[in-house]
Design goal:
Layout (H helix, E strand, L loop, with lengths): L1 E4 L6 E8 L1 H18 L12 H31 L4 E11 L6 E9 L12 E6 L4 H14 L2 E4 L9 E10 L2 E14 L21 E7 L13 E15 L5 H6 L7 H35 L6 H18 L14 H25 L5 H12 L5 H10 L1 H23 L1 E6 L2 H6 L3
Parallel strand pairs: 5-11
Antiparallel strand pairs: 1-2, 2-4, 3-4, 6-10, 7-8, 7-10, 9-10
Helix pairs in contact: 1-2, 3-5, 5-7, 6-7, 8-9, 8-10
Length: 434
């Protein structure tokens, strides 16, 4: 067999495989003789059919199997001998399959990239400086109150933050369309739950008022038959409701699961929770920044098969979060382009982290693993049961060990890189500003 391949440092490999005809014919003959012993052919007793009859019936299938087995075995033997780390499945394309001639195949495949890390001490990252202020506490408390508020009728005209109970009829080109009408529908002005212009068009209305909204569905509207189309909504207001916030007292604190006797204690609890959340948020921002810096400082060719695999994993994750069976996911629901850039980033970072882990021989730290396990278990009613379950479940434990190792690598990167401080408000941190 002849076997040639391109530069080992290239991700995409191409090779030619040639298998001598005599090897194929010898194996085909051997298998035909074996088949003859057990062949059940009409008109002959089991195993008594002449070889030429057996050959006529079974040879095409046997020849295909022999060729496929030979090519596959020789391909993987050579890949292993050359020390290549195969990524994905090879594409084996036949060039010559003629009987009594050498079998020739062309193979294209990808290998795990050879990566040489640049000096980690030359990296830099954005270190966000932030704190929880009085206004952040006030706004958080107000949001908590709004979530548990009561709604009462008002005689004044509607304004932002009010809810309206309405009947509406939607028409396009003078005709009603499916899903465009409703009775006793409740909408909150400012919730952004309706198409642009709908909620703003309800400002300044009273009970029994009527109004026609002339709007357009957005270009990226979920239903393609409505996207970009002009639409009219005939509105009739049945009721205008204003929110009444609950008083900040011990009964209210108890209903939302906070152990506080007065407003001072409640504000302290809120502040402590916001500060805990901020610590996690700042940690994640530093991690994201240093990993971006690592990726940008180390350029290499990424195997398409790895990106494709990660892209599919992302689609499955999104489908599950949406309550959709991954098997029912269609391309138009989750277009490939939506995930490609992020998938490429994830794979690139993954390869670089693995390189650091390999070079520095990083192993999972038992104490860190224990801490992660306990943090996750703390979210459940019976933490110790969860801890015991994780330690008895090999797959779960391996996942947490992987998280632990990644955290160790990030700590190493942050310790070597140069921090560039940037001050943001708590609200900017929460809203995703970098």
């Amino acid at each position: 067999m002849k076997f040639s391949f391109s530069n080992k440092n290239e991700v995409e490999q191409k090779l030619s495989i040639t298998i001598p005809a005599k090897e194929i014919e010898s194996e085909v003959t051997s298998k035909l003789n074996s088949a003859k012993k057990s062949a059940k052919i009409k008109g002959f007793r089991k195993g008594k059919a002449p070889l030429d009859v057996v050959t006529k019936i079974y040879e095409p299938e046997i020849r295909r199997e022999v060729i496929n087995d030979a090519v596959s075995k020789n391909f993987f033997d050579q890949v292993e001998e050359k020390g290549l780390k195969l990524v994905g499945r090879p594409n084996l394309t036949p060039e010559t399959l003629d009987k009594d001639k050498d079998i020739k195949f062309k193979a294209t495949f990808e290998v795990y990239p050879e990566v040489k890390l640049n000096n980690l001490s030359k990296l830099s990252y954005t270190k966000i400086i932030s704190y929880v202020g009085v206004n952040d506490i006030n706004k958080t408390i107000e949001n908590i109150q709004k979530k548990t508020c009561s709604w009462h009728p008002k005689n004044e005209t509607s304004s932002r933050g009010d809810r309206l109970k309405i009947d509406y009829i939607g028409t396009m080109d003078g005709k009603e369309f499916e899903g465009g009408s409703a009775n006793d529908f409740v909408v909150e002005i400012g919730s952004k739950s309706m198409i642009e212009g709908f909620e703003d068009g309800l400002i300044g209305l009273k009970k029994d008022n009527k109004k026609v909204l002339e709007l357009n569905f957005p270009d990226d509207y979920g239903k393609s038959n409505l996207a970009s189309k002009e639409v009219n909504f005939k509105i009739e207001v049945k009721e205008v409701l204003r929110s009444v916030l609950p008083d900040l007292n011990e009964d209210f604190f108890r209903t939302i699961g906070v152990k506080a006797k007065n407003t001072k204690e409640f504000r302290k609890e809120v502040k402590e929770q916001l500060e805990e959340d901020l610590i996690v948020l700042l940690k994640n921002k530093s991690k994201s920044s240093i990993l971006d810096s690592l990726r940008e400082a180390n350029s290499f060719e990424v195997p398409k098969a790895m990106v494709e695999s990660e892209l599919n994993n992302m689609k499955v994750d999104v489908a599950r979060r949406m309550g959709v069976d991954p098997k029912d996911v269609k391309e138009d629901l989750f277009p490939k382009e939506t995930f490609e850039e992020e998938a490429l980033k994830r794979v690139t970072v993954g390869v670089l982290l693995n390189k650091i882990i390999e070079e520095k021989e990083i192993k999972a730290d038992g104490e860190r693993v224990k801490q992660i396990v306990e943090e996750r278990a703390a979210m459940y009613k019976e933490p110790q049961q969860v801890v015991n379950w994780i330690y008895s479940n090999e797959e779960q434990l391996r996942n947490i060990e992987s998280i632990s190792i990644e955290e160790q690598v990030v700590d190493i990167l942050l310790s070597k890189a140069k921090p560039i401080e940037k001050e943001l408000t708590y609200e900017e941190c929460v809203s995703g500003v970098n």
